[in-house]
Amino acid sequence: MLRFGYRAPARTPLHERLVPPFPDPADGVRTLKAVGASLPSHGLRSLAAGAVRALAAVPARWWGWIGPVLVALVAGVLRFRHLGSPRAVIFDETYYAKDAWSLWRLGYEGTWPDDANAKILADPQVIPLSPDPSYIVHPPVGKWVIGLGEQLFGLEPLGWRFMTALLGTLSVLMLCRIGRRLFRSTALGCVAGALLAVDGLHFVMSRTALLDLIVMFWIVAAFGCLLVDRDRARARLAAALPGGRPDDAVASRLSLGARPWRLAAGLFLGLACATKWNGAYVLAAFGVMTVLWDMGSRRLAGSRSPFASMLLRDAGPAFASTVPVAAGVYVASWAGWFATDDGYHRDWGGAGPWNALRSLWDYHAQMLKFHTSLSTPHNYESNPWSWLVLGRPVSYFYESPRRGEDGCEASECAREVLGMGTPLLWWTACFALLYMLYRWFFRRDWRSGAILCGTAAGLVPWFFFQERTIFLFYAVVFVPFLCLAVAMMLGALLGPAGASERRRLWGAAAAGALGLLIAWNFAYFFPIYTGETIPMAEWRARMWFDTWI
Fold first, then answer.
1. Burial state string for 189-218 with b = 16 or more CB within 10 A and e = fewer than 16
2. Is the pLDDT of residue 493 over 70?
């Protein structure tokens, strides 16, 4: 075949296969400089040329942050705009906003009278908190976080929504950086973050004082830490290989040393569990994922028995740096309950530290019984089979103002806060997940496997509790992974770097059109994500399916 002109494709060096390099930002800067030099220096084009030249003057090393920060700023403006509206206690804010205030005042959850919401929103405000302990069913970290905003702005809607808006904005920034590391592309990372910024469910949960977005934030942070840990561990492995060639002795026996990023992942996963218990499923899934990454690294480096090497060298340290750390964080999160004798069930086991732990254990047995037996019918409950297609969203707030009320200019209007993802984004994500399955199963693409792992950890456990009362907004935990899946599919749509110009042009047009449609879809539903007053006819036009009402 060589006689007839065949040339084998260049083989990527082992070091680059272990740790693929990031794109050189200087290449983009050089392109910008060339574009700026080619533009005429008069009229509007002169302004464009000046803008391009100014961008080209930005140091190359900054480009990995400029795009993500800009995307996060847009997300922040959207989330903080009129954050205190509607001025009401909406949906389950009635539990968490008040429990958060109580934690910061008492160290445990006190009790509130039935008319507490009206008194809190009244002018002058009355805060009728009683020191009598209240039975609660979720750990305290998420409520401590919500309460921090209340300490800054008071017990009012802006105060109890501030921290979720902040964490929602920061999660967009983190996803941009995670996508950049995962895909080795700043552009695709920013696409993933931009998709998260315009997802309706993430947007609504960022503006509501519920716990699930806080769980999502810790999970995204843990995923990012594990990605950094993977790169650093593989870099150590690559540096130890003699001559950059596979070596069984090194690949099988090398200790990968201290791994602080994996410890950080254990910390964040502990915070997720200490916000809601479904974080424990993600802890288990990510623990398996990180040791499988180690096994793949050792195989690529030349180990003849990568599974045995992983069990011997990596499994124990991986467990020790995640599970005990997460457990320690979880127990520590109950510090306010331990520090007082007045918390619910605090003295059930008697006095002393050991008996306090016995009391906490029995308290958790009660909480577990509540969660596994909760089956009270609810108008907005949904089956997890319907989540990805948005079968039954949750209405957090609804009013029907008449003409002259709340800015209503029609005979009848509607104000609603609907907890629903951006439909075109979620429906696209269904196809993207199928593409992830193809890439993972047939192409052994570890990136697809990581995305599927994060999605499955947030979705699959709920299939085992279908008799329980559950809601679509629980799905916000895996929304970032849906956005990563769509971004990866859009990258494939653009075409590989070596594709023809025509192929790249059509791919860019298709990907750009899909992105614009998703952004338009978010803008179209924006009024019912924010509780704006709109004519009833416009509200009905947005109820595409009967199950959305």
1. bbbbbbbbbbbbbbbbbbbbbbbbbbbbbb
2. yes
Q: Which phi and psi angles does 315 have, rounded to 5°?
A: -60, -45
Burial class (CB in 10 A: 0-12, 13-18, 19+), 66: middle
The two structure tokens encoding residue 245: 């060639």
Of the candidates 436, 432, 435, 424, the one whose C-alpha atom is nearest the C-alpha of residue 390 is 424
Q: Is the Cα torsion angle 11, 15, 19, 20 positive or negative in sign?
A: negative
Name the band, by pLDDT with cuts 50, 70 and 90, for residue 63: confident
Is this prediction's pTM over 0.85? yes
DSSP 22: P
Angle at the Cα of 292 (from 453 to 179), degrees rounded to 5?
A: 50
**Angular region, 105: left φ>0, alpha ψ -120 to 50, beta rest:** alpha
Report residue 517 as tokens: 């449609």
Whether 415 has a pLDDT exceeding 70, the answer reads: yes
User: Torsion angle of alpha carbons 359, 364, 365, 371, nearest 10°?
Assistant: 160
pLDDT one-digit tens code per residue, 42-51: 555 566 566 6
Strands 534-535, 413-419: pairing is antiparallel
Tell me the CA distances in angstroms from 135 to 161, 360, 370, one per residue in order: 23, 12, 11
Instruction: Give the number of C-alpha atoms closer than 13 A to the C-alpha of residue 88, restricted to the C-beta side.
Output: 13
So what's the pLDDT on residue 2?
55
Q: Which neighbouring-strand residues pair with 415?
A: 399
Using H for helix, E for strand and C for coil, what is the string for 219-258?
HHHHHHHHHHHHHHHHHHHHHHCHHHCCCHHHHHHCCCCC
205, 166 Cβ separation under 8 angstroms: no
State the helix-helix crossing angle for 423-443 and 501-530, rounded to 10 degrees: 140
For the chain, the farthest-separated pair of C-alpha atoms sits apart, in whole angstroms, at 91
What proportion of the chain, given as a percentage, has pLDDT over 90? 78
Of 11, 99, 537, 549, whose CA–CA distance to 336 is shortest?
Answer: 99
Mean pLDDT along residues 317-340: 95
- Between residues 346 and 401, which one has the greater pLDDT? 401
In the sheet that holds 534-535, the strands lie side by side as 394-399, 413-419, 534-535
* Of 154, 137, 152, nearest in space to 95 by CA: 137
Q: 419 pairs with which residues across the strands? A: 394
Cα–Cα dist 134/125, whole Å? 22
Neighbour tally for 409: CB within 10 Å = 10
Q: What is the DSSP string of 268-310?
A: HHHHHHTT-TTHHHHHHHHHHHHHHHHHHHHHHHT-S-HHHHI
318 contacts 292 by C-beta, under 8 angstroms: no
Take residue 249 and report the two structure tokens written for it.
């002795």
Which has the closest alpha carbon to 140: 240, 276, 253, 31?
276
Return the pLDDT at 28.
53
The overall average pLDDT reported for the chain is 91
Q: How far is CA 411 from CA 281, 403, 533, in A?
A: 50, 5, 12
